[in-house]
Amino acid sequence: MTQPTTAPSPAKNKQKKDARDIRAEAAKIANSIKTEGQTPAETKVIANGIQRGMEMFLRQQSEKTRDLDKRTKKVRQLANQLTQQKAEDGAEESVVIHNKPVLPWMLLAASWVLFLIAGVVLVLR
Predict the structure, then answer these.
(1) Is residue 53 assigned to a domain?
(2) pTM passes above 0.70
(3) Structurally, how many domains does the chain consist of?
(4) For every residue of the chain, which 3-state class applies, written as one string?
(5) Domain assignment of residue 54, given as a range
(6) For 58-102, how does the pLDDT look when each residue is reduced to its tens digit (9 = 90+)?
């Protein structure tokens, strides 16, 4: 029974391609800095060191990128929370603003009633 072969995912393919590119780039750099009397084995060791350095650099950059993405995500979440809180506060304020105070109007009406009663009492005397 034969098992179906699955094609590698594009991300894996890209990783392999990146590794090949890094290896080729490291070899090119090692050959460009080659000195007289240097053996191919030494050149290969130098290329491996350059390759490790490049991979370490790329890892650090991807960690920085992930960290930055996490921070921006937190900032976006906090900004969304603040806008939601402001929207809720604005809704509460609008409710408070629309409530008309009744007490001043009642005092005004009572004072007019008292003035009328006082006027009637003075006229009847």
Answers:
(1) yes
(2) no
(3) 1
(4) CCCCCCCCCHHHHHHHHHHHHHHHHHHHHHHHCCCCCCCHHHHHHHHHHHHHHHHHHHHHHHHHHHHHHHHHHHHHHHHHHHHHHHHHHHHHHHHHHHCCCCHHHHHHHHHHHHHHHHHHHHHHC
(5) 14-99
(6) 999 999 999 999 999 999 999 999 988 887 776 655 555 556 788
